[in-house]
Amino acid sequence: MTTIQRQTKRASTEAVFSFLRTIPWWGVIIAIVGLVAAYSVLTDVQYREAIYFILDLPWDKALVEEIPLEGDVWTHAVSENLPLKSGTYHLYAVFYDATAVTQEDTVLRAEPDAESSETARLSKGEQAKFIRWHIIPKQGLQMEQRWVRVVTDDGRVGWALDKQFGQPDLAEVAQSGAYVLRVPKGAEPVAVDPIASPTDGEIVVETSTPAISGEVLGGSWARIYDRFSWLETVARIWSAKGIMLTIRATILGYGLALVLGLIAGLMLVSRSPVTLAISKLYVEVIRGIPLLVIVLYAGFVLSPYIREATNGGVDLRGFPGAVIGLGFGYGAYLAEVFRAGIQSIHRGQMEAARSLGMSYFQSMRHVILPQALRVVLPPLGNDFIAMLKDSSLISVVALPEILQQGRLWVSRTFRAFEGYNTVALFYLVMTLVLSLMVRVIERRTALPGRSEE
Amino acid sequence: MAEQERDPIIVIKDVHKHFGTEVHALRGVSLEVYPQEVVVIIGPSGSGKSTLLRCINRLEAVNSGSVVVDGMAMDRPRSINRVRAEVGMVFQLFNLFPHLTVMDNVVVAQRVVRKRSRREAEAIAIDLLRKVGIPEKVDAYPTQLSGGQQQRVAIARALAMQPKIMLFDEPTSALDPEMIKEVLDVMLDLASEGMTMVVVSHEMGFVRAAADRVVFMDNGSIVEVTTPELLFTAPQQERTKRFLGQILH
Known about the structure:
The complex is a heterodimer of chains A (453) and B (249). Chain A has helices spanning 3-22, 25-43, 48-55, 230-238, 243-268, 273-287, 291-309, 319-344, 347-355, 360-390, 402-413, 416-445, and strands at 61-68, 73-77, 87-101, 106-109, 118-122, 127-136, 145-151, 157-161, 169-175, 179-183, 203-204, 211-215, 221-227. Chain A has 453 residues and is of the alpha+beta class. In chain A, strands 1, 3, 6, 7, 8, 9, 10, 11 and 13 form a 9-stranded mixed sheet that branches. Chain A has a two-stranded antiparallel sheet with strand order 2-12. Chain A is extended and about 100 Å long. Chain B is α/β, with parallel strands linked by helices. Chain B has 10 helices and 10 strands. In chain B, α5 (118-131) packs across α6 (147-159) and α6 packs parallel to α7. Chain B is globular, with a radius of gyration of 18 Å. The model of chain B has no long low-confidence stretch (mean pLDDT 91). Classes of the chains: A alpha+beta (453), B alpha/beta (249). Chains A and B meet through α9 and α10 of A and α3, β6, α4 and α6 of B.
C-alpha cells in the first residue's frame, strides 16, 4: 500500500469517526427504534398486544365478560359464585366484527349440526368473517359445542365449529350506552330480571348479582366493560402490573435505599468505633452478595419468618419484601456514595461550622450535607437508573413487573422477539428519560461560578 | 475595670498536643489572655501557633493540660458548643459556606445556635456587612467574591454570634497583597472597639498598630512573650532575633 493510499484510508476513517461523534444520544435511540420498527414492518411483527400486556392496559376500564352473540339480544348476568361488592358500576358493551383464519380444511354446513348438509368448503388458511354464534351447552357426557356461522369474501356461507378457526381478529363496530348500577351495602345475591337498556342515571339494584341485557348493535362478538372514574383510574394506574409495578418498586426501593444509605453513610464518617463497625459490616456484607440473592432472601427467608414470628400480623411476602430486598441491597451502595460525598467536602467547612457553635449534627444538616448532596447527585442518579434496571430481579419472586409480564406474554404467544424487544424498549425509554432528568436537576442545583460546562 | 482586667478570659495551662506518635506539636504551653487584649502569636511554620489557637476553641483536643475560656472548661460536647459560640474564629482559607449566599453565611449560625428569628438575624447581618464594607454583596455567593471580600464576610459571620473573643488563624496569608489591607483595617477597627483577639499572623504592621502582647513560639513551646516595642527594639531570645531577621529582611 502506498503512502497516499494509506493516508486516504486514514482520512476516510477519521471522517466516519467524526461523523459518529456528532450523533447526539437521542439520535442513537431513534436509530434503534427505527431499526426495530423497520424489521417489524418487513416481517409483519405486531407489538400492540405486547405493549398492551406489559402496560397492563386498559387502565380506565376492566373487561367483565366476553359474549359470543347468538341472536339480536345479548345478556350478561353476574353469577352467584362471584357476587359484586357494594359500589357503583359503570357497565357498557362494545361490539366487534370477528374474522379468523381456518386451521384445517373445513366443511361448512347448513345448520349448526354436524349431521346437516354441506353448503361449502374452506381450505386451510382461508379467512372468514363470523356472523352469528350458536352454542349448544354441555349435556351429560356431551361437551359444549360452539358453532359459528361464517361468510367468506367470495360469498361462501355456512356453520362450522369455532375450534376449526384460529384466534379471531376483532374490529370494533359499535358501543352501547352505559348501565350505571349501584350495589348497596349488604345486598344479597338474589336473582332479578335483567335491566334491558342503558340507564339515564344511576340505578340502585337491591342485589349483588344483577343482570343487564340489550340489543345487538352489530358484529358477532361483544365485550362488557366496567369503566372507572378518573380517581379510580389513577389508583389503578398506580397499582397496575408491568411498567407501573417496576416504577413503584423502583421508587419505593430507592426511597428505602436513600434512607438506609444516608444513615449508613453518616455512620461511616463517624468517629465512634461501634457505629463505624456496624455500618462497615452492613456495607461490606451486602455489597459482597449478588442483589438477586438478597431479593431471594427478602422474599423467601425474611418475609415468611416475619410472618410466622408475628403470627401473620406482618405479611411482607410479595411486593413489600421485594422492595425491602432492593432497598437493602442498594442502601449499601448509596452509603458508600454518601460517605464519599461527605468526605469530599473540605474539612474546613466542618471546622467553620463547629467554630460557630453548631453541634455535629447541626453542622451536617446545614453545612456539610447540602454541599455533599450536590456532589453525590450524579452518582445517585446513576444508581437510580441502575436500580430501575435491577428491579427486573424481583421477577424471581413472581412479581408481575415488566420482565415477568414480558415473559408471561412470550410463553403465551411464543413470540419471543416482540416480547423481549418490548421489554427492552420500555427499559430503554425509561432510563433515557431518567438520565435526561438527572442532567436537568444537576444543572439546576449547580452553584454559580462552579462546574459550569 | 482594673479588677476585671486582672481576671484572664482565656487560661491555657501546661498544654501538650500530639499528632499520632511522631509529632509533638505543643510541649507544655501556658498562656493567659485578658479581656480586651490583642495577642499576636508569631513563629516559624510548624511551631504550633495554629494548633495552640485551635486548642482554644477545641477544634483540637488537648492531650494533657487544660484550657478554660470565660470560666468554662471544655470537657463535655455541650460546654464545647457553648464556648465556641462565644469564640469567633477566622480561618486562613476563609471557609465560607459555598452553597449559601453571603447573607445566609452570616445568618445560618445565628438561626441554628442563637435561635434568632430570620428577620432579627438578617438585621444583624446587614449591620455587620456594612461594618466590614460589603453591604452590596448580600445576595452573592462566596465564589463570586474576591479573597479579601470573602475574608471580610468570614469576619462578619464570626461577629454575628456576638463573641467575646475572636481568633484569627493567619487571616491574610492566602490573600493577594492589595487585599490584605482591607482585611487588616477591619481587624484594626475591631481591636480599637475593645474586642479580645488572639491572632496568628506575620503582619508586622498589625502587630505594631494593635498588639498589646506578642507571643513568639518555636518548636511547640512559647519562647518569648513581649510587647511590640520590645519585640522590634530588644528581643530577648536568640531564636526570636533570628526569626525577626528572616521575616523583616
